[in-house]
Give the backbone structure.
Amino acid sequence: DVSFAYDKKDEAEEALTGVDLRIPAGQTVAFVGETGAGKSTLVKLVARFYDPTSGRVTADGTDLRRLDMTAYRHRLGVVPQEAYLFAGTVRDAIAYGLPDATDARVEAAARAVGAHDMIATLEDGYLHEVAERGRNLSAGQRQLIALARAELVDPDILLLDEATAALDLASEALVNQATDRLTGRRTTLVVAHRLTTAARADRVVVMDRGRVAEDGTHEELLALDGRYARLWRTFMGQDIGEGIGEDEPAGV
Ligand SMILES: Nc1ncnc2c1ncn2[C@@H]1O[C@H](COP(=O)(O)OP(=O)(O)OP(=O)(O)O)[C@@H](O)[C@H]1O
Ligand SMILES: [Mg+2]
């Protein structure tokens, strides 16, 4: 029964309201919903970047406020919406959470998510110099590096806030594969901006203005024929005219 307001003085402006979720170990849950719906906020509460205004967030039944945060964070892998890459080598970018990792472990993590081949194409490979904020890498390359970084930490719980940047089809396929390898047996909360990610998850939670609006498998929510089904049809291009005004230009 979690509620949360960023501004404690203005609880009418809650980012989350009465959220009730139970996520079994090993499950991959995709969160979808409009911008501002509270998806990133929910994930941040699980990482304990913030504590709920009311209600509790628990891991294996223990309130996060009672857990040793250093130990808990070591079991967490966090891939933020826009992974920040400092200037340095690709190797350092992957080893960010585990700076003492050997080159062999860094490469193994990159291979595990399928980022190795991409890195091999860069000038100097793992020693390729990343510019501040990863400016000299494509959005897909940055995402693969962020996923390899999470893999290296080998977390039990993975919090993945998918980047909103549009990817070309080939990069999207690579990033999707990397995500699938990373989520594997892990307990995963993924904020899905791409509905292809939601469709592959064990479960989909639709957020709307801080509340859970729908909760079920991809198939169940399609059968429910509510918000998720509408999003999916728009995504599949079957709702043109409903989502977009009929007299809008057809495209460019
Ligand atoms: N650091 C912050 N301080 C104050 N308000 C915030 C902060 N971050 C988010 N909010 C507000 O909380 C609400 C939920 O935001 P949140 O970032 O969780 O949305 P989201 O579902 O992740 O959206 P998006 O799809 O655009 O990433 C919004 O009204 C937003 O303006
Ligand atoms: Mg967000």
User: Anything to note?
Assistant: Residues 7-75+155-241 form a domain with the Rossmann fold fold (CATH 3.40.50.300).
